[in-house]
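Handoff note, outgoing to incoming analyst
You'll be picking up this chain. Sequence as last confirmed:
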Amino acid sequence: RMPEVSEDEGGLMGVTVYDPTLGAEIEIRSDLVALSTALVPDRDEKWEKALAVPRSSDGFFLEAHVQLNPVDSYVDGIYICGMAHFPKPLDESIAQAKAAASKAAILLSKGYKKAEPIVSSSDEDICTGCGICEHFCPYSAIKMAKREKKKKAEIISAACKGCGVCATYCPFKAISMGRFTDEQIIAQIEAFGACETGS
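Most recent structure output, in case you need it:
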């Protein structure tokens, strides 16, 4: 609920706000009300496409998890802090910047990035280069690379989380999941059925 500012006949200002703790609207009386300038995030599409980090409905970058990973983005190696995240006080921005720098230092000190145990793979002989997989990948782990005269899906193993969204959307079944091919899944189902019946 949006706060409302009003002025009585005597010139005294009043701000009506909803208090979620009390579960009711309260009115604060004051001699002066100073309104802060609204902050609008930069909508530079160049950065949005390059980073591939999702934004909130307000246009600020989204963190991976509010409580568990407050400075991590959905893309490994990209950390969010300060006004890129949302408007916040200076001390909170500094604390977030220190956390983001620490996370980046840990990643850089290793010198390498471990790939997930299960990642997607693309069969270039089947791939038609339609780009559906690239569009739906939530981690921007697929890029359309030029191969001879056609474009083909190229999986970036370091960014892939093995979620399987690309394999689900591929209309030509050119993408498969490591250890989760159709044959392996059918074998698992059959083995589970054999265990259930006791044979």
